[in-house]
Amino acid sequence: MKKTVIPASLFAFSILLTSSYAVTAEQSHSKWGYDGAGAPSHWSTLDPANQICGTGKNQSPINLTNRIEADLSPIEFHYDVTAKDIVNNGHTVQINLNSGAYINLDNHRFDLIQMHFHAPSENHIDGKSFALEAHLVHADKDKNLAVVAIMYDIGTENTALASFWTNMPHMAGDSKATPNNTNIASVLSEDRDYYRFNGSLTTPPCSEGVTWLVQKQPQTISDAQLKAFTGTQHGPNNRPVQSVFARPILQ
Ligand SMILES: [Zn+2]
């Protein structure tokens, strides 16, 4: 099912009711999304807190190209947890996890908070856009963020995602239980090589200082799995690629 669309007549009526409350009207216009008045090109002006979406020099996503060879130390994954629930928050579908999972990056611990999806992919690799991209969002004790990204091409069914997607939440605001037997480690690509760069949140307020770790090895999802996800969204939920500026992209 699609999300409920407010009939224009009802919308006009609600404007009439709230016309003396400028703040209410303002708020109704400041909703971010991926098309129309809330589209990515407008994010920086929707709210003063989003200014960096337009002015930042370390914005995500990017096209990963002109990479620099570096001796990247392996990411230590400690992903021995199961999912708590799966939620449609109106911008994506998010898998919330039971606590305890983390990564060690250069001997620095980042706790895994949640996993969510974008279709098509937000980051590109050598100009290529993928069918789907997963973001595993981590935070250290000082709230610094690190995101592990996984790319998906259309192909054979992804068994790890299948177990989490058995109960897809179709409507914004829906929350569903997930089978409590699949370890989140199963979603990772077997080959743990990765690209690394500094970036930002890909949604408002586009805060910078996020460490991006993109797994090199793409996975596959079936066409039906992709449709199961895109069917829960209004349309594409990817921010366009941003300028790299002076950032090194390490591999
Ligand atoms: Zn994301």
Automatic annotation (TrEMBL):
Enzyme class: lyase
EC number(s) stated in the UniProt entry for this protein: 4.2.1.1
One of the record's GO molecular function terms: carbonate dehydratase activity
Catalytic activity from the UniProt record: hydrogencarbonate + H(+) = CO2 + H2O
Annotated keywords: Lyase, Metal-binding, Signal, Zinc
Pfam families: Carb_anhydrase
Record has Lipid biosynthesis as a keyword: no
This protein's record includes keyword Metal-binding: yes
Cited InterPro entries: Alpha_CA_prokaryot-like (IPR041891), CA_dom (IPR001148), CA_dom_sf (IPR036398), Carbonic_anhydrase_a-class (IPR023561), Carbonic_anhydrase_a-class_CS (IPR018338)
Required cofactor(s): Zn(2+)
Residues annotated as signal peptide: 1-24
Domain of life, per lineage: Bacteria
Limits of the Alpha-carbonic anhydrase domain: 30-251
Family in the record: Belongs to the alpha-carbonic anhydrase family.
Free-text function comment from the UniProt entry: Reversible hydration of carbon dioxide.
Descriptive protein name: Carbonic anhydrase
